[in-house]
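Design job #97: recover the sequence.
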Protein backbone atom coordinates (compact mmCIF):
# COMPACT_ATOMS: atom_id res chain seq x y z
CA UNK A 1 0.00 0.00 0.00
CA UNK A 2 1.12 3.59 -0.55
CA UNK A 3 0.69 6.52 1.81
CA UNK A 4 1.25 10.25 1.26
CA UNK A 5 -0.07 13.40 2.90
CA UNK A 6 -1.23 16.45 0.92
CA UNK A 7 -3.06 19.67 1.69
CA UNK A 8 -3.34 23.14 0.20
CA UNK A 9 -0.06 24.12 1.87
CA UNK A 10 2.00 20.91 1.99
CA UNK A 11 2.73 17.95 -0.22
CA UNK A 12 4.60 14.87 0.92
CA UNK A 13 6.21 12.05 -1.02
CA UNK A 14 4.63 8.64 -1.45
CA UNK A 15 5.85 5.93 0.91
CA UNK A 16 5.21 2.27 0.14
CA UNK A 17 4.42 -0.02 3.09
CA UNK A 18 5.00 -3.77 2.98
CA UNK A 19 4.29 -6.68 5.33
CA UNK A 20 0.78 -5.63 6.33
CA UNK A 21 -1.51 -8.57 7.00
CA UNK A 22 -5.14 -8.18 8.01
CA UNK A 23 -7.56 -5.28 7.87
CA UNK A 24 -6.83 -4.11 11.41
CA UNK A 25 -3.11 -3.91 10.68
CA UNK A 26 -3.78 -1.96 7.47
CA UNK A 27 -5.65 0.60 9.57
CA UNK A 28 -2.86 0.73 12.16
CA UNK A 29 -0.10 1.01 9.53
CA UNK A 30 -1.87 3.84 7.70
CA UNK A 31 -2.53 5.69 10.97
CA UNK A 32 1.12 5.36 12.02
CA UNK A 33 2.39 6.57 8.64
CA UNK A 34 -0.10 9.43 8.58
CA UNK A 35 1.10 10.64 11.98
CA UNK A 36 4.76 10.15 10.97
CA UNK A 37 4.25 12.19 7.77
CA UNK A 38 2.45 15.00 9.65
CA UNK A 39 5.27 15.15 12.22
CA UNK A 40 7.92 15.36 9.49
CA UNK A 41 6.04 17.99 7.51
CA UNK A 42 5.37 20.04 10.66
CA UNK A 43 9.13 20.05 11.29
CA UNK A 44 9.71 21.32 7.75
CA UNK A 45 10.95 17.96 6.46
CA UNK A 46 9.63 16.04 3.46
CA UNK A 47 9.14 12.25 3.80
CA UNK A 48 11.56 10.41 1.52
CA UNK A 49 10.53 8.12 -1.33
CA UNK A 50 11.04 4.74 0.31
CA UNK A 51 9.65 1.32 1.05
CA UNK A 52 8.91 0.71 4.72
CA UNK A 53 8.00 -2.45 6.62
CA UNK A 54 5.17 -2.54 9.14
CA UNK A 55 6.02 -4.18 12.48
CA UNK A 56 2.67 -5.19 14.01
CA UNK A 57 4.23 -6.16 17.35
CA UNK A 58 5.67 -2.67 17.87
CA UNK A 59 3.01 -0.85 15.78
CA UNK A 60 5.64 1.08 13.79
CA UNK A 61 7.11 1.14 10.31
CA UNK A 62 10.81 1.18 9.49
CA UNK A 63 12.84 1.65 6.33
CA UNK A 64 13.46 -1.34 4.07
CA UNK A 65 14.94 0.55 1.11
CA UNK A 66 15.16 4.06 -0.27
CA UNK A 67 13.73 4.99 -3.66
CA UNK A 68 15.73 7.29 -5.92
CA UNK A 69 12.60 8.98 -7.31
CA UNK A 70 8.94 8.32 -8.04
CA UNK A 71 9.50 6.19 -11.22
CA UNK A 72 11.23 3.57 -9.02
CA UNK A 73 7.78 2.61 -7.79
CA UNK A 74 6.76 1.35 -11.26
CA UNK A 75 3.06 1.71 -10.60
CA UNK A 76 0.20 2.91 -12.74
CA UNK A 77 -2.15 5.67 -11.67
CA UNK A 78 -5.69 4.45 -11.01
CA UNK A 79 -8.09 7.25 -11.90
CA UNK A 80 -10.97 5.49 -10.12
CA UNK A 81 -9.47 5.89 -6.64
CA UNK A 82 -10.17 9.27 -5.05
CA UNK A 83 -7.84 10.79 -2.43
CA UNK A 84 -9.16 10.75 1.12
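Job complete. Output follows.
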Amino acid sequence: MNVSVHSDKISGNRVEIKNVAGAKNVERAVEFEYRRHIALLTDGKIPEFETRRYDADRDITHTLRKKEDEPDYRFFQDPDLPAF
